[in-house]
Automatic annotation (TrEMBL):
Alphabetical UniProt keywords: Glycosyltransferase, Membrane, Transferase, Transmembrane, Transmembrane helix
Family the UniProt entry places it in: Belongs to the glycosyltransferase 15 family.
Record keyword Membrane present: yes
Bilayer-crossing regions: 392-415
Pfam families in the cross-refs: Glyco_transf_15
UniProt biased composition (Polar residues): 48-58
Protein name as annotated: Nucleotide-diphospho-sugar transferase
One Gene Ontology MF term: transferase activity
Length: 457
């Protein structure tokens, strides 16, 4: 190969190796290992510049230290089918052992079918408060009259083909719509102010020796979460159009000092798919029953996206919380270590984990993984990320340097017509060479096979 051509082949090889190194090095972004400093009274202090993780822990732990008792008007709530009995039993056991055995809150179970005796017998024996069982009125779990059911069926078939998770399911859509706009209107929930949603199969890894409902009440929080993440865009293609319609129709409902920057990167033009994972929620039922939320839900429900797409209750609740509430009214529970398949939140701070007798592995923490929206939540609140999260390791920096060099090489080749022509010739040459190698290999393989057959005979 002439020397000039060789030069450009080297550029291309460097580019490929460099890109590989770049992507490998980006994976080396370190996880935070910060631990809060204990105060002399054994509880946790925070100072300016500490992460929200620590601030949140400290706020809750200070609350825990000063509120050993107390009670809010609240209930645990679960939507479930009869066949979920064993998975919900596991979840109840965990919530009871880690929290409710000291507080004895009631537990409301809701179902679109009547609960059977087994479900009632098993679950009521596990709940330390009163277990209440409610059937969902059919008008809350059926098609509204403005929905074209043939179109909805076609969409389900299309989503089945596209293998969109739960895209084929009719009942999943009723469930999402119910959780978005109806559960808080069920007669059994009317008397309560706060709810904690619990799903079958979840796990809790740390003690909750304080009352999260009372914390919500005393600090004027309306919605809280443990894990946040990106939604699958194929399920909510027109959701933000509906949200924009709502914002245009009801500017009076949009809170000042809201958390818009959590759900939109361009001040409301588009949705960035971030949402709070709603299989865990502690929130205010009064807020969900408010005119603001009801107008929001009704605008979206009229769009038909629960059936013509597959809108989930998580983005519906999250966008509402981000637009209708002040950002201080939304709370992130760092102290509640939680698992719902397939993600875990486990506090990074060892001191906190010891204090709360946690059994989770912090290396499995989802908070700073690529799909998590917690970094965006921090930024939206103007809170510095824990050390290590926003920084890059030396390997990552090396990756960026390599990427810069690659781009420079590619640019040099692209703007010089002679270099471009030679790069093209080199690539072709390499291709032909590899083809020759391949043919030679095939020929040798055939020869070897013939030899083997001769030996056999
Ligand atoms: N009564 C009733 N409850 C349902 C139905 N579908 C789902 N649920 C409940 O609604 C909640 C959410 O459903 P899941 O199937 O857990 O949905 P998900 O969390 O998005 O998906 P998973 O990854 O499967 O957990 C759970 O508490 C279920 O028990 C249904 O058709 N009827
Ligand atoms: Mg679930």
């Amino acid at each position: 190969m002439p020397p000039a051509q060789g030069k450009y082949v080297r550029y291309l090889i460097i580019a490929v190796v460099g890109l590989t190194l770049f992507f490998l090095s980006r994976r080396s972004i370190p996880l935070p290992t910060s631990t809060p400093r204990p105060l002399s009274d054994g509880h946790l202090a925070h100072s300016p510049g500490q992460s929200q993780n620590e601030q949140s822990s400290n706020e809750v732990m200070r609350f825990a230290a000063t509120h050993s008792g107390g009670r809010a008007n609240a209930t645990l709530v679960t939507l479930a089918r009869n066949r979920d009995v064993w998975e919900i039993s596991q979840a109840i056991r965990q919530v009871e052992d880690r929290f409710n055995r000291k507080f004895h809150y009631n537990w409301v179970f809701l179902n679109d079918q009547p609960f059977d005796d087994t479900f009632k017998r098993i679950t009521s024996s596990l709940v330390s408060g009163t277990a209440l069982y409610g059937e969902i009125p059919p008008e809350h779990w059926s098609y509204p009259d403005w929905i074209d059911q043939d179109r909805a069926r076609e969409v389900r078939e299309e989503m089945r083909e596209k293998k969109i998770i739960y895209g084929h399911s009719e009942s999943y859509r009723h469930m999402c719509r119910y959780e978005s706009g109806f559960f808080f209107r069920h007669p059994l929930l009317q008397e309560y102010e706060y709810y904690w949603r619990v799903e079958p199969g979840i796990e809790l890894f740390c003690d909750i020796p304080y009352d999260p409902f009372l914390f919500m009440k005393e600090t004027n929080k309306k919605y809280s979460f443990v894990i946040s993440m990106l939604e699958y865009p194929g399920t909510i293609e027109t959701l933000w159009d509906g949200v924009k319609e709502f914002m245009d129709d009801h500017p009076e409902h949009i809170a000042e000092g809201n958390l818009m920057t959590f759900v939109s990167n361009d001040n409301g033009k588009t949705y960035n798919n971030c949402h709070f994972w709603s299989n865990f929620e502690i929130g205010s039922l009064d807020w969900l029953r408010s005119k603001e939320y009801m107008d929001y839900f009704e605008t979206l429900d009229r769009q038909g996206g629960f059936f013509y797409e597959r809108w989930g209750d998580a983005p519906i609740h999250s966008i509402a919380a981000s637009l209708l509430l002040q950002k201080e009214q939304i709370h992130f529970w760092n102290e509640i270590a939680y698992y719902h398949m397939p993600f875990t939140h486990c506090p990074a701070e060892e001191q906190l984990r010891k204090e709360l007798r946690c059994s989770c592995d912090p290396s499995g923490n989802f908070d700073w993984k690529p799909l998590s929206c917690l970094p965006r939540y921090y930024r939206a609140n103007g809170i510095p990320l824990p050390s290590g999260v926003d920084g890059y390791s030396w390997l990552a920096i090396f990756g960026f340097v390599i990427l810069g060099a690659i781009l420079a090489c590619l640019l040099a080749v692209a703007i010089n017509p002679r270099a471009r022509a030679q790069a093209f010739i080199s690539v072709r040459h390499l291709y032909l060479q590899s083809q020759t190698f391949w043919e030679r290999y095939q020929e040798e393989k055939r020869e070897w096979e013939r030899e083997r057959l001769r030996m056999k005979r």
